[in-house]
């Protein structure tokens, strides 16, 4: 190992970061170089308002971070990861056709059912292994069919690849992120001509002509523009779906683990060597997304800390004061457990808005005691998220035939001690929390391995992660009746 410096560009729904990392003494040392805000921008388009990403502001933040990193370090490589499914369309001159649309935009409402009229859900699942989410790229494209942008488009680039294109000129799609589109054959790890043919024939959009060549994580895809970084600095295709990088950084020592990559979303699942494409898996809405080294991330999206984030935003906007989250979580920990639980995956929680009011309304309709204040609302969110983690871990185990002995919580949610403890209690399994910066660590280590500074597979990457961060273990307390709470949460209005 050497002390060459790698730079991870890690983009999340609320902020982006540029993080430098270098290997020293069997550990990965990191330094946050630059952080910049991110969020949806609402623009009028005809008779409705469309949510977009301000991708140019993101790119500006990346450039600022890369140049700052180069002033402090000898940069050996760069990798970019972000959330999934969203993309930019380029015209024949390579110009961006408008800011990418945000996955929470309502344009895909009802679109999955339109697609299933031509490609039944079981057939689509058999090819892509992907859980049905209204924002999957295939549904976004069908929603855009017939627009001027779609008619003019020559190339589709997923968000990390679009940003990489602006840095290098390369036009590729990294497979871990491509597997979230609903356009990839999960078994062959190639674009599915069966799916793209249906989109072309039924909706008049030649998706196959838009899709770039696929590359596996760990591929060098180009050289950073020397106007940004001097020298021959390679851009490495890391696990460009942030969850793929986070799962690569799960500090597991045995294969019988579940993971919760916990942030705005909770991505809850297992790492497998082949997809699970059974009808039971489809009915349970589990997804088979691709991971590093030929692995499959068998998981389900749970709404995650989005409920807490939007609740805090609502309270701060309505009161004009700043919410003290650590204090609020401390008071929520002392509140009555399992008093009110709701189904966090109810579609009512997907768009931005007044989350406390939505929680109260869903609780009332389900016959649950309605939270009366901020503390009770936060406790409801934490208990309900732990129940969702419990349900998903157990279903993943049953559907895959994999016995489990531990749950690893990575990402920002690993710092939420209340949620980690409740997840241990609910699942009946020990929870190992950390690293909080799992996505950046996975990004950096894939670069280091691709460029020869690390030897070995995922076990070696995970050994370095475990040596590089402090982990906290939560043993389960089996004193509460989580079975009864689960029956209440799953028996709400959406289930009926």
Automatic annotation (TrEMBL):
Pfam families: FGGY_C, FGGY_N. SUPFAM superfamilies: Actin-like ATPase domain (SSF53067). This is Rhamnulokinase family protein. Residues 6-247 form the Carbohydrate kinase FGGY N-terminal domain. Gene3D superfamilies: 3.30.420.40. InterPro entries: ATPase_NBD, FGGY_C, FGGY_N, Rhamnulokinase. CDD domains: ASKHA_NBD_FGGY_RhaB-like. Keywords: ATP-binding, Disulfide bond, Kinase, Nucleotide-binding, Rhamnose metabolism, Transferase. Signal peptide: none annotated. The keyword Cell cycle does not apply. One of its GO terms (molecular function) is transferase activity.
């Amino acid at each position: 190992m050497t002390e060459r410096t790698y730079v991870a560009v890690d983009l999340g729904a609320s902020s982006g970061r540029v993080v430098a990392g270098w290997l020293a003494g069997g550990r990965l040392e990191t330094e946050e170089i630059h952080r910049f805000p991110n969020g949806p921008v609402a623009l009028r388009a005809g008779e409705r308002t469309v949510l977009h990403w301000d991708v140019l502001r993101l790119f500006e933040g990346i450039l600022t971070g890369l140049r700052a990193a180069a002033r402090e370090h000898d940069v050996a490589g760069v990798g970019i990861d972000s959330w999934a499914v969203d993309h930019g369309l380029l015209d024949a001159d390579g110009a961006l056709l408008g800011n990418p649309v945000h996955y929470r935009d309502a344009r895909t409402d009802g679109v999955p059912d339109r697609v299933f009229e031509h490609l039944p859900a079981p057939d689509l699942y058999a090819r892509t292994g992907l859980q049905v989410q209204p924002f999957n790229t295939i549904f976004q494209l069908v929603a855009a069919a017939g627009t001027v942008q779609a008619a003019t488009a020559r190339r589709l680039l997923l968000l990390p690849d679009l940003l990489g294109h602006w840095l290098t000129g390369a036009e590729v799609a990294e497979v871990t992120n491509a597997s979230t589109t609903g356009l990839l054959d999960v078994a062959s790890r190639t674009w599915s001509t069966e799916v793209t043919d249906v989109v072309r024939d039924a909706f008049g959009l030649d998706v196959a002509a838009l899709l770039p060549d696929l590359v596996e994580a760990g591929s060098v895809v180009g050289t950073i523009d020397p106007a940004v970084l001097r020298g021959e600095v390679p851009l490495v295709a890391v696990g460009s779906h942030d969850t793929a990088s986070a799962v690569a950084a799960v500090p597991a020592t045995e294969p019988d683990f579940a993971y919760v990559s916990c942030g705005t979303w909770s991505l809850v699942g297992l790492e497998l060597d082949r997809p699970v494409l059974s009808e039971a898996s489809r009915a349970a809405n589990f997804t088979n997304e691709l991971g590093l080294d030929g692995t499959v991330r068998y998981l389900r999206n749970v709404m995650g800390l989005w409920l807490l984030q939007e609740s805090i935003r609502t309270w701060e906007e309505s009161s004009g004061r700043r919410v003290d989250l650590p204090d609020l979580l401390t008071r929520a920990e002392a509140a009555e457990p399992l008093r009110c639980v709701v189904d966090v995956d109810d579609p009512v929680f997907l768009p931005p808005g007044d989350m406390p009011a939505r929680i109260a309304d869903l609780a009332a309709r389900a016959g649950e005691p309605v939270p009366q204040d901020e503390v009770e609302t936060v406790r409801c969110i934490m208990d309900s998220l732990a129940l969702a983690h419990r349900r998903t871990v157990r279903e993943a185990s049953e559907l895959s035939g994999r016995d489990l002995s531990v749950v690893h919580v990575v990402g920002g949610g690993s710092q939420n001690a209340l949620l980690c403890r409740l997840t241990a209690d609910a699942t009946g399994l020990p929870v190992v929390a950390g690293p909080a910066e799992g996505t950046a660590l996975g990004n950096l280590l894939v670069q280091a391995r691709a460029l020869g500074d690390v030897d070995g597979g995922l076990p070696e990457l995970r050994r370095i992660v475990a040596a590089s961060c402090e982990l906290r273990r939560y043993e389960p307390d089996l004193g509460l009746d989580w079975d009864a709470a689960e029956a209440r949460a799953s028996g709400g209005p959406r289930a009926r």
